[in-house]
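Supplementary Note 3. Input sequence used for the single-chain structure prediction.
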Amino acid sequence: MDLAAVMTALRESWGPDTCAPEDVAHSTPDNPARGQCATAAVVLHDYFGGCLVRGEVVVDGRQVDFHWWNRLPDGKEIDATIDQFGPHEKIVGGERVERPTGPTRLDAQYALLSSRVSAWLAQSP
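The predicted structure, written as discrete structure tokens, is reproduced below.
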């Protein structure tokens, strides 16, 4: 599978209904990546394996959220949603985390994003 094609499919598939609930109000056409990091990272993991990485989002020295991205089997790090952050938000740390195996609060968003990406890739030349 081509990484560029999957990245394009992700970007074309994001919407408020695939966003983390706490970020829906901040997900706009100008910032469609907002709140998509966990689901996007798990979808990328479906296609490329490797591991999931989680860091902290820090504003004015205070942690306000977490941010997820991928480390591919060759060690390359891919962050499909880094553009969501403004200059006042810093990502610190980055530890490997296990893929969730049980129910999570983002199951519906992941299922929807995964199905959209799959459909987009199936229609792509």
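Residues 3-123 form one domain. The helical segments are 3-13, 37-48, 107-123.
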